């Protein structure tokens, strides 16, 4: 799948109107017995002996870690408070989330910054991190993660004025393949964050 920045920036709003975004579906369930078998198969496939002492519990631990990742429950993410505030920019930054890249099934982590301008509803502070973790707990692309976080903040707060910046480090780039540490920065700018240079700059200053 090819994602251009134009595609990312245009998603979630059409002609200035908020596009209806469906709430995310509940977390997937893993097939735990199958994961246990696969864990053992994996050890065999790489030439290991699943009966050696150090590996006896490894298929179970491996299955557990997949279950923990896939069946992650973010808790309540949508507590909002009614307010007359319509002119404050709120930013929450430095939220580190871990995810798995969908190409290599290797971890990546991102520092997530979210900004929005409330229009009648403010979102509970802790909910930004809950939302970020919620979408990180699936096989991901960094760009899609940012897009889904923006969609969800927008859906819950009812405003299209949402911005999300992610700075990620991907183990599939740093520990294998090209083996080059580096930071990937991706951004989703919606509404006034996209349309107004000053607002975008203010957001970027506040999160830097
Ligand atoms: N844009 C984007 N690319 C990613 C992300 N995670 C991993 N990738 C990249 O996905 C690409 C997959 O490329 P392929 O050529 O199919 O796979 P590969 O042969 O393992 O590629 P190399 O990593 O270059 O060795 C690589 O360039 C990865 O760095 C992500 O979140 N966003
Ligand atoms: Zn990868």
Question: What features would you highlight for this structure?
Answer:
208 residues; alpha+beta; GTP Cyclohydrolase I, Chain A, domain 1; GTP Cyclohydrolase I, domain 2; 8 helices; 9 strands; 38% helix; binds zinc ion
What does this molecule look like?
Belongs to the GTP cyclohydrolase I family. GO terms for molecular function: GTP binding; GTP cyclohydrolase I activity; zinc ion binding. InterPro entries: GTP-CH-I_C/QueF, GTP-CH-I_N, GTP_CycHdrlase_I, GTP_CycHdrlase_I_dom. This is GTP cyclohydrolase 1. The model is unreliable at 1-17 (pLDDT under 50). It contains eight helices and nine strands. It is α+β, with helices and mostly antiparallel strands. Helix 2 crosses helix 3 and helix 4 (126-136) crosses helix 5 (142-157). The chain folds into two domains: 32-70, GTP Cyclohydrolase I, Chain A, domain 1 (Orthogonal Bundle); 79-207, 2-Layer Sandwich (GTP Cyclohydrolase I, domain 2), CATH 3.30.1130.10. The two termini are 31 Å apart. Helix content is 38%, strand content 25%. A hairpin with a 2-residue loop joins strand 1 (13-14) and strand 2 (17-18). Bound molecules: guanosine-5'-triphosphate and zinc ion. Zinc ion binds next to loops.
């Amino acid at each position: 799948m090819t994602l251009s920045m134009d595609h990312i920036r245009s998603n979630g709003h059409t002609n200035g109107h908020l596009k209806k975004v469906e709430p995310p579906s509940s977390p997937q369930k893993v097939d735990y017995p199958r994961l246990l078998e696969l864990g053992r198969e994996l050890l065999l496939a790489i030439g290991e002996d699943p009966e050696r002492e150090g590996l006896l519990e490894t298929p179970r631990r491996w299955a557990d870690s997949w279950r923990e990742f896939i069946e992650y429950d973010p808790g309540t993410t949508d507590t909002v408070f009614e307010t007359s505030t319509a002119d404050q920019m709120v930013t929450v930054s430095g939220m580190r989330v871990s995810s798995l890249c969908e190409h290599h099934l290797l971890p990546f982590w991102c520092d997530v910054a979210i900004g929005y301008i409330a229009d009648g509803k403010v979102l509970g502070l802790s909910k930004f991190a809950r939302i970020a973790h919620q979408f990180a707990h699936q096989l991901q692309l960094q760009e899609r993660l940012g897009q889904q976080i923006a969609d969800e903040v927008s859906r819950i707060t009812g405003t299209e004025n949402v911005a999300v910046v992610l700075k990620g480090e991907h183990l599939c780039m740093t520990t294998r393949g090209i083996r080059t540490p580096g930071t990937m920065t991706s951004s989703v700018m919606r509404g006034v964050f996209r349309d107004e240079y000053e607002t975008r700059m203010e957001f970027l200053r506040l999160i830097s």
